[in-house]
Amino acid sequence: MLKGIDPILNADVLYALRAMGHGDMLILADTNFPSDAIAQETVHGELLRIDRPMGEVAQAVLSVMPLDTFVEDFAGRMEIVGDPDTVPPVQQEVQDAIAATGEARPMVGIERFAFYDLAREAYAVIQTGERRFYGCIMLRKGVIGPDE
């Protein structure tokens, strides 16, 4: 264990988060997402896992990773097929974790198959233990400024 770091962030996840650069994408996926197959096509190339609910994983990741403030798609959510404007509770929990960082903008919606394509371009995929449908999120890494 480390002081000040959420204990659900394992060494492999921390390594990947630290290695990511500004603008790199991270996918947080539910248990039904084809995580292993897609992870093999990412920059990291290996699937990462945190077997916890999506809201907990998002909160832990966002405790150490800043979001990109320079782009509109700083965070995205997989849209529900046939109902793209509905934000299910699993996605609202992530939106709440984002809001807790001080970011007021809503996540952008991403069509299901476009989300799969985007995920293949990501730096890494973390498969969570989330079993609710549409628990698939993209987070784009931001920057940490210099000390004043």
Automatic annotation (TrEMBL):
One of its GO terms (biological process) is fucose metabolic process. InterPro entries: RbsD-like_sf, RbsD/FucU_mutarotase, RbsD_FucU. It catalyses: alpha-L-fucose = beta-L-fucose; beta-D-ribopyranose = beta-D-ribofuranose. Pfam families: RbsD_FucU. Keywords: Isomerase. GO terms for molecular function: D-ribose pyranase activity; fucose binding; L-fucose mutarotase activity. SUPFAM superfamilies: RbsD-like. This is L-fucose mutarotase. It comes from Jannaschia seohaensis.
